[in-house]
Specification:
Structural class: alpha/beta
CATH superfamily of the largest domain: NAD(P)-binding Rossmann-like Domain
Number of domains: 3
CATH class of the largest domain: Alpha Beta
Strand content: 15-25%
Number of strands: 12
Shape: globular
CATH architecture of the largest domain: 3-Layer(aba) Sandwich
Order of helices and strands: HHHHHEEEHEHEHHEHEEHEEHEHEHHHH
Number of helices: 17
CATH topology of the largest domain: Rossmann fold
């Protein structure tokens, strides 16, 4: 590795020794951009890489709230405002017990590249809390969201920082957050949050966007490598939230046979093909567990999760789409997938594949679509929602979907062209890192040392 990049990586590891997820995300980028640094010596002189790695601002705060028994609870809130080089900070809020500063920084770091690849005028950020909405009543979730926003409102605004949803933050949570923001600010600032309900400022196709975008990207990657269609291909998708459900819907519309979905407890395997309407009923309306799929499809199989690895990756498939959480495909799972003849892997979640698993896929000629490119459909459609809020105007579902599709086609082309130009032909992970970094680095160089 380039001496300068080696030094930057060593310093980053020393400064962030207790943040493994963040170090993993930074390492993946740094090990890809050596040819860019060799071609642009001014980036070393101006400390561009160090400045890209360091977030502009990290906000941490206490979130007190009262549960239904009257007991006071305390959680921790975060907002990492990573980069405003390309536009207002933009990135989701995650409510999950695993949330900590390392995860927030890794997600924010990934977000700046993802948003740069979208071609839209948005910077990068991430936030959230270690609050767990699962098992909480609507009123408990509301009280938590109101307390969370009572602090967060000071740091956001439609021209400053525009949060959205992520794991644990769906339409219900966005509604409560927006209501409290509006109450505190005494004004209707519709563009301050995205992922809103369509009836009060949200965009059509936002719910579907990340899943649809993933399939659009996969379609382009398959076509570029001699696979013209999804038709008849077996697909396994981890997760059962918005990303997984709508990736399933779009893949099925292209003629793929989606045979498995999962949640944190286990996975369902239906050789005949997943009954998506039933999954939507269970997960979106009843907020139940995926195991309940068997109540109407007794011929399907439920495989319980007993260890760290998700059993879904042991099912024979042509295309694997990890859409649940970070580092869910490790080397063990990657080996199982390759032994079962997997053709392509597409990341619908953020950083769901460990570095050794990515390397194993690439060594075994498995097509690999990296998260910062393949799951950019959600934030891209959030940016489209922001533009609609600014215009006081709504696009139709078809208009938003058409824009989303073109954005994902352009993102794939950017990854492909960058990988070819810098000696990583067919390595779309390196291509995404390089294309995103170049856009950020050029803006940083142009804007001076700030």
């Amino acid at each position: 590795m380039n001496r300068y990049l080696e030094k930057v990586l060593e310093e980053t590891k020393a400064k962030n020794v207790n943040e493994p997820e963040f170090i993993q995300a930074v390492t993946e980028v740094i090990t890809s951009i050596e040819p860019v640094i060799e071609a642009h010596k001014e980036y070393e002189r101006e400390a561009i890489v160090e400045r890209v790695i360091e977030p502009e601002r990290i906000i941490t705060f206490r979130v007190p709230w009262t549960d239904d028994r009257g007991q006071v609870q305390i959680n921790r809130g975060y907002r990492v405002q990573y980069s405003s080089l390309l536009g207002p900070y933009k990135g989701g809020l995650r409510f999950h017990p695993s949330v900590n500063q390392s995860i927030m920084k890794f997600l924010g770091f990934e977000q700046i590249f993802k948003n740069a690849l979208s071609g839209l005028p948005i910077g990068g950020a991430k936030g959230g809390s270690d609050f767990n909405p699962k098992g909480k009543s609507d009123r408990e979730v509301m009280r938590f969201c109101q307390s969370f926003m009572t602090e967060l409102y000071r740091h956001i605004g439609q021209d400053i920082d525009v949060p959205a949803g992520d794991i644990g933050v769906g339409g219900r949570e966005i509604g409560y957050l927006f209501g409290q923001y509006k109450r505190i600010k005494n004004g209707y600032e519709g563009g301050v949050l995205t992922g809103k309900s369509v009836g009060w400022g949200g965009s059509l196709a936002r719910t579907e966007a990340t899943g649809y975008g993933l399939i659009y990207y996969m379609r382009e990657m398959l076509k570029a490598n001699g696979e013209e269609t999804f038709e008849g291909k077996k697909v396994t998708i981890s997760g059962a939230g918005n990303v997984a459900i709508y990736a399933c819907e779009k893949a099925q519309s292209y003629g793929a046979k989606v045979i498995a979905l999962s949640d944190s407890n286990g996975c369902i395997y239906d050789k005949k093909g997943i009954d998506l309407q039933l999954v939507k009923q269970i997960k979106e309306i009843e907020r139940g567990r995926i195991k309940e799929y068997l109540r109407e499809h007794k011929e399907a199989q439920y495989i319980e999760r007993t260890g760290e690895s998700n059993p879904i990756w042991e099912i024979e498939t042509d295309i694997a789409l990890p859409c649940a959480t970070q580092n869910e495909i490790d080397l063990h799972s990657a080996t199982k997938l390759v032994n079962n003849g997997v053709l392509a892997v597409g990341e619908g979640a953020n950083m769901p594949t460990t570095p050794d698993a990515i390397e194993y896929f690439q060594k075994n000629d498995v097509l690999f679509a990296p998260a910062k490119a393949a799951n950019a459909g959600g934030v891209s459609t959030s940016a489209i929602e922001m533009s609609q809020n600014s215009m006081r105007y709504y696009y139709t579902f078809e208009e938003v979907d058409r824009r989303l599709e073109q954005i994902m086609v352009n993102i794939f082309k950017s990854c492909e062209e960058a990988s070819e130009k810098y000696g990583y032909s067919g390595n779309y992970a390196a291509g995404a890192n390089i294309a995103g970094f170049l856009k950020i680095a050029k803006a940083m160089y142009a804007q001076g040392i700030v």
